[in-house]
Design brief:
4 domains; binds magnesium ion; binds adenosine-5'-diphosphate; alpha+beta; 4-stranded mixed beta sheet; Nucleotidyltransferase, domain 5; 24% strand
Length: 615
């Protein structure tokens, strides 16, 4: 293959498509590629020497958009027109974010509904997808400027706990920015890839990825085996990060200087200096600065004391992640440091001492996710050995079956990509349609789970109940997006749907749904058994009714009377909601009808055989 190498320094053209890796972060975003010459991933640097683009979007009065550092400068001047942390809104409804609304200084529209959240700026409304798309467009433009080629393909990273809706929203943002998103991969997986962990065949490793960013903290436990990544557990805090360190310093100074904490403008200025102090202290032992003519100082020791409680919380999350993964601390082979805030020396020391291990921190922690995305892009471009990336589903996926029961097709924590098919049949004679309702959750009854989608399989040719074979297939692709299809196998009638949920689940909600499933497990088993018994009883009543009306000629009056009597008893038992009683009376009805049913069926069989040769 005649590849034309790309020279980053001179910007010489190359003929092949470049697939870039993008870290679309809550605080900062950036683009990376694998260099053709050295085969090493690098973060793209603009002429200003910067790789990071603050994930901030500013809209002026004429709705002109600026992204990155110029937008960051507007945070103080026009807070209501400057959007930060749009990632927190991805794939969410207003209900999902209502508790967090106080966090945003811009206007998140508050129509307390399930519809997707939007942000209001002046008289215009923007979806989080559009906001993220603005950031991606800027990244694309920068990359094109630096590389002097068109960029149309990308791998984008998302947190491991992102659900279907959030992943889909990220993909849509990419498309809106003119990027073909070849794959969405998990941030901890990308970070591990950047360090080449698991790159060798037959390598088996268990990895902890500690990611302390600007506003969020995530810890993930992964395993890599034969180039296949699996997320065993994730834990963290969606409101814990470097910003909290800045706030702790600002609060400390505000007391020293006697600035009231409710003086928003002054506090904001304090925070800007606090961040500079924090960064300075990552390399030096002391900081001296000035805030409106007054001198402020901060020693490394004082800083450590201020942030200790925050670090303690991250260590607790690490313990929980290990527990959820069922992995002992000493079974962790590698600890990977991710996020700008892991530059803080005391953070690094605390993590080392907790895991009793040296950590991977050679790469820039705020670039490592993008570098890994570039490695994945390189694999997809066919320029690297074949590595599979595998993730797991956070919650079970299934469909509603008779009696409102959840029939799980893909259990929680299943590997993705994944495909599973199961056969169902009709309940009624001549039934021509079947409703397929897709749910997510751990409870036995669908009403306690979350509905993702619904569609009708129509045009099933008339057949007796139980004869049609409807195969329902769940396919989750490598991005974690679900496609559900249904096909009646005898006639070939088929229908399918891509499950793009209206809104997403927060990780707290996922947690709650899991917790609920545990606390309600006993009750659920009871309900399931009752529903199953009632469904079976109703079917028994139905078939018996059909049988006696069809074969009344062959039955005695006593037989019909005894049957009718038992049918009434069973109907009453169904109303009584006592599972054991229902089963007992179903059994009883079976006993009453079995003798004549066998007699009639034998007679029918004999008739059918008459005059026919047995082969
Ligand atoms: P995110 O993943 O949330 O987009 P980043 O990984 O880019 O965020 O981390 C941003 C955070 O890292 C900010 O709070 C920033 O102040 C902090 N940070 C960056 N450099 C340093 C440093 N040298 N020392 C301490 N903190 C730093
Ligand atoms: Mg990050």
């Amino acid at each position: 293959m005649g590849k034309v190498a790309i020279n980053i320094a001179t910007g010489s053209l190359q003929t092949e498509d470049i697939i870039v890796g993008i870290d679309l972060g809550t605080t900062n975003s950036l683009v990376a590629i694998v260099r053709e010459d050295s085969q090493q991933p690098i973060a793209l640097k603009e002429t200003d020497g910067l790789t990071l683009v603050p994930s901030i979007v500013h809209f002026d009065e004429y709705n002109n958009i600026t992204v990155g550092n110029p937008a960051k400068d507007m945070l103080l001047k026009q807070p209501e027109r400057t959007i930060y942390s749009a990632k927190r809104l991805m794939g969410k409804s207003y209900k999902d974010v209502s508790k967090e609304a106080g966090f945003f200084s811009y206007n998140v529209i508050d129509d307390d509904t399930d519809s997707l959240v939007k942000v209001q700026i002046g008289d215009k409304f923007y979806s989080p997808i559009e906001l993220s798309s603005a950031i991606l467009s800027e990244l694309k433009k920068r990359a094109e400027h630096i590389l002097k080629v068109n960029i149309s393909k990308a791998v984008i990273t998302v947190p491991a706990y992102f659900n279907d809706a959030q992943r889909q929203a990220t993909r849509d943002a990419g498309r809106l920015a003119g990027l073909d998103v070849l794959r969405i991969i998990n941030e901890p997986t990308a970070a591990s890839l950047a360090y080449g962990l698991g790159a060798k065949a037959n390598e088996e490793k268990t990895i902890a990825v500690y990611d302390l960013g600007g506003g969020t903290f995530d810890v993930s436990i992964l395993t890599i085996s034969n180039g296949i990544f699996e997320v065993l557990s994730t834990n963290g805090d969606t409101y814990l990060g470097g910003d909290d360190m800045d706030r702790a310093i600002a609060n400390y100074w505000s007391e020293e200087l006697g600035i009231p904490a409710d003086d928003k403008m002054a506090m904001q200025h304090l925070r800007v200096t606090a961040e500079a102090a924090k960064k300075h202290l990552s390399k030096n032992d002391g900081f001296e600065g000035e805030i409106s003519g007054k001198k402020v100082t901060l020693s490394r020791d004082k800083f450590n004391e201020l942030v200790q409680p925050l670090i303690d919380r991250t260590i607790t999350a690490c313990k929980n992640a290990l527990k959820d993964a069922g992995i002992a601390k000493d079974k962790i082979d590698a600890v990977v440091m991710v996020g700008g805030s892991t530059r803080v020396p005391i953070v690094k020391e605390s993590v080392k001492s907790f895991f009793e291990k040296d950590v991977f921190d050679d790469l820039n922690p705020d670039e490592v996710v993008a570098l890994g995305a570039a490695v994945q892009a390189d694999i997809l471009a066919g320029k690297n050995t074949d590595m599979l990336l595998l993730d797991v589903t956070p919650l079970s996926l299934g469909i509603e079956t008779m009696g409102g029961l959840m029939d799980v097709l893909i259990p929680r924590n299943s590997k993705i990509p994944n495909k599973i098919a199961r056969q169902y049949t009709t309940q009624k004679d001549g039934q021509s349609g079947m409703r397929i309702s897709v749910f997510q959750g751990e409870r036995d009854l669908v009403k306690d789970n979350r509905k993702l989608a619904e569609f009708n399989l129509t045009g099933i040719p008339g057949m007796p109940a139980g004869l049609p074979k409807v195969e329902v297939t769940f396919l989750i692709d490598a991005d974690g997006i679900l496609r559900v299809s249904a096909k009646e196998l005898r006639s070939g009638v088929a229908q399918s749907i891509d499950v793009k949920p209206q809104y997403g689940l927060t990780d707290e909600e996922v947690e709650k749904m899991l917790l609920d499933s545990l606390t309600h497990a006993k009750e659920d088993i009871g309900t399931r058994a009752l529903v199953e018994a009632s469904t079976e009883a109703k079917q028994m009543l139905d078939t018996t009714e059909k049988f006696i009306s069809k074969h009344s000629d062959s039955l005695s009056e006593e037989e019909i009377a005894a049957t009718r009597k038992q049918m009434a008893v069973l109907a009453a038992a169904i109303n009584g909601q006592d599972k054991d009683k229902i089963q007992q009376e179903t059994e009883q009805l079976n006993d009453v009808s079995r003798p004549y049913a066998e007699r009639v069926m034998e007679g029918a069989l004999k008739d059918a055989m008459k005059g026919k040769k047995v082969l």
